[in-house]
Amino acid sequence: MTRFMPDEALLASPRGRAFPFYADQDTAMRRDAVPPTVDLVIVGGGLAGLAVYSACWHAGLRNVVLLERTGVIGGQFFQRVDRLKQRVLRSPYDHHPGAEGHRDCELLDFARLHWAHLTDIERREVRMAQAGHRSVVPLDVFEGFCRHVAAIHQVYARSWQAHVSQLESSEDSVCVKTSNGEIRARSVVMCTGERRVQAPDSWRENGKDWKRVFYWDEPVPEHASAAVVVGAGLSAAHVIANFLDKGSQVDWILRKTERYQCADVNASFFRAEGRARFLDTDRHQRLELMRRERRASIMFEFEPRIRRAEFAGQLRVHRNSHVACIGDTGEGVRLAIEGGRSIEADIAVLALGTQANVGAGLLPDEIIAPRDGWPDIEQATLAYTHAPRIHVVGAAAAMALGPAARNIDGHRVATARVLKAITRTCLPAKDGRDRPSSRSVGTNA
Asked: Which residues of the chain are under the pLDDT cut of 50?
């Protein structure tokens, strides 16, 4: 059997390159008052929101508003990866945001168009992708491509930096309450992504707040002579690598063992036959599939570096270990491990994974109707069963699409389902008359 031999150099692509761009386009999101009435509101300007907007543009739906609280296309995605000092994505070149069935310019095309800006290693990865092999995508290339997709679909002209506080659904419209005013829309698509998993309350020693415990997506002190990292996935690996670069002594706590592989689920779930497994099963079976198939994983390229640090003694790996509680020592932190052991360090970083934003805080529980942490949505339209004008694209749709819902390709598949329902509501009928629902909402922005 042939084993893939990782190359650490693949992790070190440059960051901050300025690819040629559309000089005449204003890429700043608007901050003025939002339009009072529109056809569609997209909540979230991350990768899923970009896919939805692009698909709507191709469908001829122009009276659309995209709302993003960070004010940047890509949302918190790029903020998080930059905080981790991540330089590449494990997704191959055929995973990219955009509209399903419309090949305006794909990620691989974009990389080839900007060949002169790539390093020799990055060019080798492009050739690997062209040959159909696994490849690593530089973050610069991916971000540049996202900006390109936003520009050619005129996303910036209809994007507002705004915080959404509440959605109120009625029979013929949805009221979206934002920091920039209220919008009445015929339909809403929720693209709110994922949030970090919080540590259980039982981890807080005597229920006290932590002073030297941080999460992976928070600013972490630059200098720590000793650090503890809790978590088994890619975020944990980046945090560990950053500490090792600074010369810190690191303890790594894993509930199981580290998994070096290029995907956190079986790749078949990203294809039609894998998604079909979620069509032919009941809810209990889907939950079991989700529990069994999703697992923390780390890119192959990290393995040599981590093994080398462990052998040298700079990294101590505590496999099959469970945290009992974490407390401050006055000068640092102490982590009590089940079984009686304890670990002390200057700081601790928790990288416990992510979970879907299912609409909590924006919608009442009776609309979300969560069961086992997942919202009650329709299989065909990805709309909330109790609010058929509000749809979800992204991780919250996992009970309908499976693990693919969290994937960039999955966003395109989800968008294709949602678009069928949206166009019935938002586009004029073929006879030229508005559909019945449009009279209660209005058509002008």
From this structure: 1-2, 431, 433-445
CA distance 211 to 329: 10
Cα–Cα distance for residue pair 255/275, rounded to 1 Å? 29
Summarised one tens digit per residue, pLDDT across range 318-373 is: 999 999 999 999 889 999 999 899 999 999 999 999 999 999 999 999 999 988 88
Regarding pTM above 0.85, the answer is: yes
Burial of 215 (0-12, 13-18, 19+ CB in 10 A): middle
Burial class (CB in 10 A: 0-12, 13-18, 19+), 173: buried
Cβ(96)–Cβ(408) below 8 Å: yes
CB of 63 closer than 8 Å to CB of 428 = no
Decide: 19 and 117 in contact? Cβ < 8 Å. yes
Question: Which CATH superfamily, name and number, covers 8-195+355-440?
Answer: FAD/NAD(P)-binding domain (3.50.50.60)
Structure confidence at residue 24 (pLDDT): 63
Compute CA distances 324 → 34, 213, 235, 335, 349, whole Å: 48, 15, 22, 7, 15
**Fold classified for 201-262+297-352:** FAD/NAD(P)-binding domain (3.50.50)
